[in-house]
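Mods, move this if it's the wrong board.
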Amino acid sequence: MGSSSAPAFDPRDPLGLDHALTEDQRAIRASVRQFCDRRIEPHIAGWFERGEIDDIRGLTKELGSLGVLGMHLQGYGCAGMSATDYGLACLELEATDSGIRSLVSVQGSLAMYAIHAFGSEEQKTRWLPSMAAGEAIGCFGLTEPDHGSDPADMRTRARRDGTDWVIDGRKMWITNGSVADVAVVWAQTEGGIRGFVVPTDSPGFSAPLIHHKMSLRASVTSELVLDGVRLPGSAVLPDVTGLRGPLSCLSEARYGIIWGALGAARSSLECALEYAGSRVQFGRPIAGFQLTQQKIADMVLEYTKGLLLATQLGVLKDAGRLRPEQVSFGKLNNVREALEICRTARTVLGANGISLEYPVIRHMNNLESVLTYEGTSEMHTLVIGQAMTGLAAFR
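Not the wrong board. Structure tokens:
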């Protein structure tokens, strides 16, 4: 068993994981990477610094043309690709910026998935084709100012008035909210929690921007305000009642985060590796010093383990066997380790690590949000703890 037939070691793919991808998967990854390099990378640092995306509607339409909006859904103009295909796209999008991946995740895995999984045929045909094309933007209203980790206690209420529904409430930290054409809003009713498809031009609906963020600055984040929003009876999602609806949507989005966070980690790792090879101190590149090599070794170990974890979860998802507890494994581990990779990469760059001339501080700041949205580390820890012990420790 000699090593003469082994390929050369590739620092960009140290365990040869690309070999496990199909030719189509590599092509999907390449097309998303090329799009990001051409369309987003030249502008993303400026968007982050200014806290706004230029022509977000135009960008969303281009993402629709690329085929990544709802790409893992079947029919209604969606691409119907595999879980691994979608994961690879999320990784490439977040290697550019978490805010761009968030736009795609909220559109496809939250708003579109909710309509696709639980909507009426009328709702599906009305919204999904235009959302897949990026011509209509969606958002997902679950989190409230006082209710994040405990959505069962949400205060938003929907009441019957004849054949109509009337919704009152507030939602907070809603990606895409201020630019959305449609919002999937979850509310308490007499019969339990229900989802509603809410056109954002409905009287009584508004979505003020949230300002002063230091994270996800290249992302639209809003509050949703619903003051007596009147909707027809057909606005309710007919096929789900209770928390199963929003939580299943969150599992879809968390799966994309499992892959996406690795994109931020990879970008920071590659930046640190390149910088360490060119930065000379004490007469030689800092990559030649033991402590720097320890950082690089630790970063690539955690990145590669995260990629193996994401790949296994993709296999389970495509087989219809992925459980929410397993999603918690991926979300907890990969975001936590990706953030640590970004922080370590920042130290390799020294003072340059805080400059937007390099992507590291931007990824690091963004992952502070990714760490706590769609399930905090504490919540995912308790999900795994309950799965392992059979005992719930949430209350």
